[in-house]
């Protein structure tokens, strides 16, 4: 028992911001809940079960834009003449944070499924360079990787754009970020309009919406850029950022609630096109208050921080490894006379148990050591 307790014991840095950890924990909860719906809907009527769903990935996007935008602002403001070395160092640190876990899980999935599934129509190398959903819908394989492609393209496009505008066009960092953010927001919105018009006359709009609008790189970069704009607001208008945090929080919650009650109306032009915008804006508006919540205490604080720390690993393994490999194989050993409700309840417990156990092991013994090596090489 003590050994198991030690596995789940994680170091918590005093520099962590509790309010942002709350957002990460909520985001991964919504992702896991959506993937667990396949079990929950047999326990709770579907119309009630879906009330627990929300777009957790969009929360991750905006939070990522806020944090990475802040890093880029500090780098450029402290180096008035950016060099390629600075650009490379940024990429190296981001890639060491995101790629090792991703490549490990991807390789495990390729190795496993190549023995049992037909990869016809799926080009595996595209997953290694993050283009599997660049111009086409995300294939069935490693379904959750669509959002990681969007993140990696953001890490690539935005710094290059800033480097060019600041270094060669002599623009200020603030103006450069505004140009890039507004440009990508406009581009992604236009792309969603184009894709929406494409599916407008087709049947089953929700699956098509998820395939052609929600999970393509070109249609979702704007979600991250709203977080970048929030970082600009924090850095360049720090006083107003602090004074208006409660008012902005109220506005943000209102936007998120509005989206919650209209999220399934994808056949409606406004929600179909501007649904991702509503979530991104809502999260961006609540960031000032969340960012001001620096720490907490008690079991709730420890639980939320633990979930936040392991959220990336949990995101990577919960669907492809836990659900599609572990649970499908364990399901064969369940008693044949179990009812559907009992079986779904057992699988639901196993889903969350294996996800958090696996995420903890992956974070503590692979992700964290690599990040420590990255920081030592700084």
Describe this structure in words.
This protein is mainly alpha-helical and 378 residues long. It has one domain (2-376). Helices cover 75% and strands 0% of the residues. The chain has helices at 2-7, 18-40, 46-49, 56-78, 84-113, 124-128, 146-167, 173-199, 205-214, 217-236, 238-243, 245-260, 269-292, 298-309, 311-330, 340-376. Helix 2 (18-40) packs across helix 13 (269-292), helix 5 (84-113) runs antiparallel to helix 7 (146-167) and helix 15 packs antiparallel against helix 16. It starts with a helix and ends with a helix.
Instruction: Report low-confidence residues grouped into runs of 5 or more.
Output: none
Number of domains: 1
Distance between the termini: 38 Å
Beta fraction: under 5%
Count up the helices: 16
**Can you give the mean pLDDT?**
92
Helix content: over 70%
Shape descriptor: globular
Instruction: Evaluate the radius of gyration.
Output: 21 Å
H/E element sequence: HHHHHHHHHHHHHHHH
Q: Indicate the structural class.
A: mainly alpha
